[in-house]
Q: What sequence folds into this?
C-alpha cells in the first residue's frame, strides 16, 4: 500500500490575472488528460510585457500523478 | 547597535485560497511563539490536488527573528 | 529579423498587498525609464514583518528589453 | 549510429525498506510501459513518517530511454 | 488568448559534429511525434570519448509545446 | 482543515552500516523530542574515512512536523 | 594597479545559425555602447521553434567591463 | 560511538568590521544557548550600505551541534 | 511608503589585501555614480595567482539601490 | 596543528547491489593510490538499465585527503 | 565487470573559433596524459573580449576516465 | 597563443585566524607541488567549533593552473 509510484510531468500555465490563476489554469488543463493528479510544485514564474504592462503571467509547474491503477 | 544577531527557522504554511494567504497563515502561526520576527523568504511553492482541483497551496518560508533581547 | 538583442536588468518591487501587486509595481516603475520591455522572471520572493504581521512583500525580478531600435 | 535520441521522464518510486528498493520499484513500474530504458539519475530522496517511524522512502528519478526504433 | 498552456518534455540529442547539430537532431526527432513545438532550453552538454577523441556530443533539452488545440 | 502549518528542522544522522540506517537513526532521535513528525528530505550524504575504510555514513535531513495542535 | 573594478551586465543575443554566432551578435551589440568589455560567461542557451525547425538560438550572457577609466 | 546525531540551526551574525568578525559574533551568541557546537558553514554574505559606506556585514551560517548527551 | 522599488546591479571589486577590502573597494566605486545604495550580497569570491602567491582577490557583488526619488 | 590542508578528488564507483556498495567500491579503489583519506560527499547517484532491470548503480563522490605529511 | 571505477578531473580548454573547438582542444590535451578517457560534461562556457571582439572562448569540462586497469 | 589549457584542482585550506589566511595557506601549499597556478575560486567556507569558539576556518577552493608547458 505504501509502494505508490508517481509520474511527474512539467507544464506551463498562464493567466492575465496573476500567479494563483496561472497555476489553476495549468492544473485545470492537466486534469483533462491525466488521472490521479496528486501534487504540484512551482519551478518558475515568468511573464510577458507589452506596452509597459504585464500581458500575462506564466507559471512552470511539476505535476505528480499516481500510476498504480494503470499497470 | 549594528551587531544584531538573527536566527532563521523554516516553516510551511498552507491555504486553500492561494500563495499570499498561505504566506500569511505561516507568519501568523510563527508569531504566536516567536518574538521579534523581522523578515521572510519564500523557498518553495507546492500544493496538493484532489479530484483535479487544487486542495491547498503550501508555501515554504525561511523566517528570521532577532535574538538580541533574549540573551 | 530573428537576431534580436535583449538586455536584462534586475529590479525589486514591493507591495503591502501581495506578490502579484509587487510584480506590477516593479514593472510600472521600470517602464518609466526603459523602452521595449518584453519579459520578466521572478528570482526571489521575500518580505518584511513588523509586530507579527507582513509589512510588505518584496519580489526580485529579472526584466528583459529589446535593444534593437537603439543602436 | 552515434546519433541516438533519448527521451527523459521523471518518476517517483517508494518502498518501506529503503532507498535501493524504492529505485528498483520505480524502474520495475516504468519498464511495464516504456521500452529501451537506458539510464536513471536520482533527483530527490524523501519519505513519510508516522508515529515516529519511517513509513516509506520516496525516491525521485529521471529515467532516459532511446527513441530510435520508434520513429 | 493569452492563456496558453504548454507542456514541457525533456530529450537528449546527439551528434558527432558538435553542439548545434546535436540540438537540431533532437528537435527534428521531437517534431516527428509532437505538434506545436514552441521553444527549447539546453539543460546539459555532455559527450562520449573513445580512443582520446570525441565520439559524439550529447545535449539535453527541455522542449515546450502548446496544448491548446488538443483538449 | 487544509490549513496545516509545519515547522522544518535540519538534523544529521550517522551509521556505520549505510545510508538507510543513518536516516533511521536520525528520525529515531528526532522523534524523542519532536511530536507529529510528518516527512523528511535528504539534503546531503557524506561520511568519514579512517585507514582507507568508511567509518560512518552521515546523512543530512530536513524533517517536517505539524504545529497545529500546539498553539 | 591590481584594484580594478568591473561592472557586470546581462544581455541576450540571438542567431539563426547557432550558439557561437548568437554569442558574437550579443558581444557586437554590447560593444556599441559599452567600453572596455573584458569577459563574458554564458548563463543560458534557449531558442524558438516554428514549424518543427529552430527559428533562432538565444544565448544569455553576463558581460564584464572595467570601470577604472570612467571615474 | 560513531552514531552521533547533530542538529543544524541557521543564524545570521553581523559586524561593522568585516566577514570574519560577523562569523565570530554569530558563534558567540549561539554558544550562549546551545551546547556542543561542532561546526559551521557560511551560506550567505550580505550587508547594508548607508551614505555610500558599508554599515555592517551580515553573514548567514548553518551551525551544527551534537544531540547525543541530551536524550 | 512601503512600496519602495530597488534596482540591482552587479559589480566586481578587487584588492591585494583580502575579501573585506575588495568588497569595500567595489562599494566605494559604485557610490561614485549610484545614489541611494542600500544593500549588497556576495555572489562570488575569486582571485588571481602569480608566482605562487595571491596577486589580488576578486569579489562579485549584487548591489541594490532605491529608485523612488528618481522617477 | 589546526592548519591542515586537504585535496579533494572526484571519483565514480559502481555496483550491481546498491548505493552503499557503490560508495564502498569507490573508496576501496581510491585507498589503493591515495593516503590519508578523510571524508567523502555524494554528489550524484545514477545507474544503467538493461532489459528493464538495473544493471549497476553509479555513485559520484568527492573524496578529501590530507596533504600535510607529503610536503 | 559492472563494477568500473572512474576518476573525474576538471579542465578548461580554449579556442578562438568557438565552443565545439574549445571542447576538442581540451580533450586533445587531456588525452596526452590520461588513458581511458570515457566521457565529458560541460560545466562552464566563458570567454575573453578585447577591442570589442571575442578573443577566445573558454569551456570548463569535467572529464571521466576508467581506473580499472591501473590498480 | 590564445589556446591555453588549464587544469582545475580542488583544495581545502584552514587557519585559526580567518578566511583570508585560510585561502593563503591553501595556495601556499598548492604552489609547492603545482606550477603555473593562475586563479582560484572559493566554493565553500566552513569551520570547526570547540568550547563555544571557532577552532579554525576551512575554505574550499578550486585552483586553476596552465598545462601548456608540460605536454
A:
Amino acid at each position: 500500500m505504501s509502494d505508490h509510484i508517481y509520474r511527474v510531468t512539467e507544464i506551463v500555465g498562464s493567466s492575465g490575472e496573476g500567479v494563483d490563476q496561472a497555476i489553476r489554469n495549468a492544473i485545470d488543463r492537466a486534469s483533462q488528460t491525466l488521472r490521479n493528479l496528486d501534487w504540484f510544485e512551482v519551478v518558475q514564474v515568468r511573464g510577458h510585457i507589452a506596452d509597459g504592462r504585464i500581458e500575462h503571467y506564466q507559471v512552470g509547474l511539476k505535476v505528480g500523478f499516481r500510476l498504480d491503477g494503470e499497470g
